[in-house]
Design brief:
The relative contact order is 0.20. The protein has no helices and 10 strands. Strands 6-5-4-3-2-1-10-9-8-7 form a 10-stranded antiparallel beta sheet, with no helix packed on it. About 0% of the residues lie in helices and about 70% in strands. It is globular and about 45 Å long.
Length: about 150
Amino acid sequence: MNLDTRNITLKITASQYRNGEKAPEKIELITEGTMLKKGDLVYLSYDETEFSGIEGCKTCLILDENSVHMQRIGNDELIGTQIAFQEGLRYDGLYETPHGAIEMEVLTHKLKNDFDSEGRGEIDIDYRISLKGLSEGRSHLNIRVM
């Protein structure tokens, strides 16, 4: 089994379009993390910061050719959340908050994984997310290894 771990710098850009707004709310973050290659899978992990609004959480992205799985493992307030992104498919799950779990539905419109065999590249995900009773909108996530 081929294991290759290294430290990386990630540039994360998240855009949210809420309730039909044309201009997105955009957040950009540059952070340190790690990359692990295990067989055909690539694992990217990084610690969330105060800027992201979920300080104290660790985010792990598991990439394969056709999907991206996001896992957030948090402190006492945020127990954990998982989301699966696969183009054209709907994912139902729970979004953990300090006030309890909220039903979540994610529909991935577009998923582009441009990582090469050296672990360079980017992930681009365009999706709709609904947090039952709280918010609904379109989001775009771009994560690039610098």
